[in-house]
Amino acid sequence: MPHPLITQEHVETYQRDGVVLIRGLFADHVETLRTGVERNMAEPGPYASNNDKPGETGRFFDDYCNWQRIPEFEAVIRESDVAEIAADLMQSESVQLFHDHVLVKEPGTSMATPWHQDGPYYFVEGQQTVSFWSPLDPVTDATLRCVAGSHRWEKPVIPTRWAKGDAFFDPAPYMQVPDPDAENMDIREWPMAPGDAVAFNYQILHGARGNRANARRRAFSLRLVGDDARYVERPGPTSPPFPGHEMVAGQRLRADWFPYLRGAP
Ligand SMILES: O=C(O)CCC(=O)C(=O)O
Fold first, then answer.
1. Residue 264 is assigned to a structural domain of this protein
2. How many C-alpha atoms does 198 have within 13 Å on its Cβ side?
3. CATH number of the domain bearing residue 64
4. pLDDT at 194
5. Is residue 97, in this structure, part of any structural domain at all?
6. Residue 30 lies inside a defined structural domain of this protein
7. Domain contains 262
8. Does the global pTM surpass 0.90?
9. Fewer beta carbons under 10 A from the terminal one: N or C of the chain?
10. Would you give the DSSP letter of residue 67?
11. pLDDT for 55 beyond 80
């Protein structure tokens, strides 16, 4: 039986489409996450960015890999039901923490989050992966948009730098970023309440509109991996880079940096 917050249908949808909505996943933790986001913005880490792009209005702040220094993030990761639900969705015994990501679009932010798959930016390969994207404000227009089934595409999509738009790696083995709206793809998106979460596979193509509303759009995104996830070499530095990780191809992610939230082998 899956965790009471989800049904067998959630699991089947996730397995088939690579994306599913989970109402209320972080509902009891919204205030804690908001406090964590404020702390993160007041004390940004080395990877924080405002995604400054000429001609864009507002502010699109993002930062990642902060759970070790933002106690609110670690508390929610360890005290919420997220690991159990991740295990059900991924059909995995183990659940390992990869990293956290904060994405804040202040009112009047014009910049869209470009369409991308997370997997090609990461040094992780495997089918048992999940990201949970949760808004901390009510969201309609600037919600997450995911292309159902894109986790089964044959070629990965070329990862690009969001503000500059240039490619992270040599584009040769990748496909160009498609335009899901123009190509009438099956885009899943939902109006969401604070603490709801979209669960999506690392290979799912996703993006988000700018935030033209007059309210903030704060979001917390949590990336976890399961049994079959392995370290993989990429053609250049990955995002996040995790300098000095010393892992080699084919290895499970080192547990002292990426702790098991359940099912440690
Ligand atoms: O919040 C956004 O605008 C995009 C989020 C995203 O790309 C992610 O969580 O992987």
1. no
2. 26
3. 2.60.120.620
4. 98
5. yes
6. yes
7. no
8. yes
9. N
10. T
11. yes
DSSP secondary-structure letter at 251? Answer: P
Residue-wise pLDDT tens digits, 144-173: 999 999 999 999 999 999 988 888 888 778
- DSSP string computed for 202-248: TT--EEE--B-SSS-EEEEEEEEE-TT-EE---SS--SS--TT----
List ligand 1's pocket residues with C-beta within 6 A. 101, 103, 113, 118, 131, 133, 144, 206, 208, 219, 221
Q: For the chain, what is the total number of helices (H) and then of strands (E)?
A: 4, 13
Cβ-contact 49, 41 below 8 angstroms: no
Query: Which residue range is the domain that position 108 belongs to?
Result: 8-241
Which atom of ligand 1 is least distant from the CA of 103? 1
Cα–Cα distances (Å) from 130 to 49, 137, 181, in that order, read 24, 22, 24
Pocket test for ligand 1, best of 122, 141, 201, 221 (most atoms within 8 A of CB): 221
pLDDT value at position 44? 98
CA distances in angstroms from 179 to 48, 205, 206, 256, listed in the order given: 27, 10, 11, 39
